[in-house]
Amino acid sequence: MTIDRISSDRRTEILEAAVRVLARDGLAQASTRKLAAEAGINQATLLYHVGSKDQLLLEVLREMMRQTREIAVAAAQEDLPLREAITNSLRAFWRHVEATPELQVMQYELTLYALRNPEAAWLAREQYRGYCEVVEGVLRAACEREGVTCALPLDALARFIVGGLDGLILQFVSDQDIARTRRDLESLIAAVIALAEGSAPVDEMAQPPSSEAGHA
Questions:
Q1: 203 vs 168, more confident
Q2: In the prediction, which pLDDT does 77 show?
Q3: Are 78 and 88 in contact (CB under 8 A)?
Q4: Pick the residue with more confidence: 169 or 146?
Q5: How many CB atoms lie within 10 A of CB 43?
Q6: How far apart are CA 133 and CA 169, in angstroms?
Q7: Any idea what the Cα angle at residue 109 is, between residues 108 and 111, rounded to 5°?
Q8: Half-sphere exposure of 130 (CA within 13 A, CB side)
Q9: Is the model more confident about 173 or about 51?
Q10: Residue 115 and residue 109 in contact, taking contact as beta carbons nearer than 8 Å
Q11: What is the reported pTM?
Q12: What is the 3-state secondary structure (H, E, C) of the chain?
């Protein structure tokens, strides 16, 4: 095994340990001492491989972004028409959310951490840009397979989906009411399908509020 491979393997072990600590104990409790102990190394070795705690936390956020993209893409592998692709993809993603509430909380913590760090704020923006691009790609592939045109621009519909899921996730991790959030998910799916197929009042929804309304 080469030195580069050893270093890569060690970084992977550290990253996995960091995910476990952050998911279990939260960002506030994730000291370098605790992270190193979880990885089975000393603090000096930890910092040698990751540079600093801040750099490690940002690497964890990147890893969460990668995993989320993989889940979304895997859920859309079947050659399904648009309506079914939307339904199956959102339900598959939600199964992941229900199974990993602690990872969802951790990801929000890391996103806010990045936003609070001026040098890392770009990563939070990149995170959501990346999520929207993945969802847009799933929608575009389904439209092309079926030979249809989405009634709402794909980028706008993707942002609507990501925003809707964000709201559902925050409610779910707050009270973990599975039955209610599943019902709400089905409402989101119905809204997305209506927007995609044109049965929702897209033109009215797309209009910005008038200046008169702001002064009413």
A1: 168
A2: 63
A3: yes
A4: 169
A5: 15
A6: 19
A7: 60
A8: 18
A9: 173
A10: no
A11: 0.80
A12: CCHHHHHHHHHHHHHHHHHHHHHHHCHHHCCHHHHHHHHCCCHHHHHHHHCCHHHHHHHHHHHHHHHHHHHHHHHCCCCCCHHHHHHHHHHHHHHHHHHCHHHHHHHHHHHHHHHHCCCCHHHHHHHHHHHHHHHHHHHHHHHHHHCCCCCCCHHHHHHHHHHHHHHHHHHHHHHCCHHHHHHHHHHHHHHHHHHHHCCCCHHHHHCCCCHHHHCC
What is the share, in percent, of the chain residues with pLDDT greater than 70?
88
Tokens 């691009």 -> residue: 133
Which tokens sit at 150?
Answer: 């989405």
Tokens of 25: 């104990």
> Average pLDDT of the chain?
86
Which residue has 């939070």 as its token pair? 124
Q: What whole-number distance in Å separates Cα of residue 83 and Cα of residue 190?
A: 9
